[in-house]
């Protein structure tokens, strides 16, 4: 039985931390301005965007804390350390987005029935500033590891949702200012809510997949099995498990059956190299068995 622990997961984590902290300060600061502006102009589009920005700020703060917590060393009780905390944070972010979107939808329906007066010029000004703030925030987050790290990705999706919210508020402000279409305000907020729900669903689904020990995207178990079986002296591969500890940290375990003249250490080394080079898996636990001696498991739990 062999264990190999990869220390490569710390790549980009400090950069991700800095990116998240900077974006948090930017988003939180403007959220306060947008909330006051929404109350002042009586615009639901602005208030819904401010509500989304509040969830963004919370999400970014949570993501920042998660990456700090994930750096803590493993203990006897938590042998993988606190890396999974990042996924829990991403799941909370996703659910928060969905809840906020539902609340915005409810308020939008109320405003369809009786559209209130909206101070369109003030709404336009604040929405335009919000648009620019969100562009800056998105650019900052793109410097992080948004394609690999689910936490940074969820934060990026929050900001993109905000960016679209600002666009909606700008369009609504223009329609109210030039044509007096008060109904444009709840329509804009409803569109934003649909976009927010979509982002929230995607993040929640990905986080749930990781929490359910799902196999990482882009790595096929059948491909791994076929590749290991091509190694010299390997007869069979069984009891295969492939899962994700946290973003960018896949883990793998299996039993390998050797020909009776196969050498344990040689095959083990070749398998480790194959997993690392072909599939990017650097954390694996492999049980090597001789064909004649069979699987030493006391209970029939192999799959």
UniProtKB/TrEMBL annotation:
Keywords on record: Ion transport, Membrane, Transmembrane, Transmembrane helix, Transport
Residues of the Cation efflux protein cytoplasmic domain: 216-289
Coiled-coil intervals: none
Localization in the cell: Membrane
Domain of life the protein comes from: Bacteria
Main location: membrane
Xref: InterPro entries: Cation_efflux, Cation_efflux_CTD, Cation_efflux_CTD_sf, Cation_efflux_TM, Cation_efflux_TMD_sf, CDF/SLC30A
Family matches, as SUPFAM superfamilies: Cation efflux protein cytoplasmic domain-like, Cation efflux protein transmembrane domain-like
Chain ranges of the Cation efflux protein transmembrane domain: 20-212
Family: Belongs to the cation diffusion facilitator (CDF) transporter (TC 2.A.4) family. SLC30A subfamily.
Protein name as catalogued: Cation transporter
